[in-house]
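U., I forgot to send this yesterday:
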Amino acid sequence: MIGASLTGERIHFVTGKLSEHALRKMLERLAGQIEFQPTVQVLNITVAALMTTDWIARRLEVPEGTDRVVIPGLCKGNMTSLEQKAGVPVERGPEDCRRLDEWFGQKRQDLDGYGEHDIELIAEINHANRFSLKELFAESTRLRLAGADVIDVGCTPGESWADIGNAIAMLVDEGFRVSVDSFEPGEVLSATRAGASLVLSVNSRNVDAAGDWGCEVVVVPDEPSTLKGFDETIAQLEVLGVPRRLDPILEPIGFGFAASLGRYLDVRERYPKSEMMMGIGNLTELTDVDSAGINTLLLGFCQEKGIRSVLTTEVIYWSKSSVKECDLARALVYHAVTKKTLPKHVEPRLVTLRSGKQQLHGDDALERLALA
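Result:
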């Protein structure tokens, strides 16, 4: 860490391509605060931490008048040859360039405003028709406290729900935004008349009824693998004047997962201005892995491609915290994409299996612990 006055100093920073944007942005702000003059050399390597001092020395170009050189903190090797090449003192900076504030003795500011997001989180209550009104309210409240923006009332195929209107009206009266998840036109009509503002989902089977609902709908294909009927349903809704968001359907691993991601890319390219949604439960609920990592990866995909809503569930045990995970992840990926910085050392609550840094105690400490 630099402790002396830096006023007027010319400091040359060496980095890789991945960190360039974040480093330049940090230096632009810090230079004004501390009054030093930075220069940046971006070497032809993606990950700066993979550089060694000998490798840097062969490529280092120090501007005339430089007072010191700063290399990434994780760079390995002897500093002597590097200082001989530079002709000025060389120091290792922080392991992560986003910690430059602290390295310069300043308060960290790169997380100012952290928590903003623009992905809407829809949380489904499966088999909602089997809940009492009291149970439905309690579960909706729990999901909202976890971060849900919309409560998706999931109907059960083959089970008629005559009281769906009262259930939806109760939630709307309590201040919830509600969607209805059903292909049964009668259930949907009752739900939308009671205040549901989104219908999941519409394809060629029920598109003719969509004009009567007076709300936004989610469009899905008749056959996800081929997108059969998808464009036709979109066109019909356009004629009817029905607002819509598009969901090509995410498939489970082993059943076309990679191809389904490709269809999201295809749909985004063909409908660049349309709202889109991704239902992520087909991965989190159907894969033997804790859900936090999957949720974060999928929300990162959505953030980059402008998919501004996700639908999640909490049915299987390892996905019981999916709503909260998605709430944390949407802030993390928004920060990464909008700030052009890595989603790293920012949100520790998504690291559930291991902590960010290994704690080594040594044999002596373990032996003392065993004897205690």
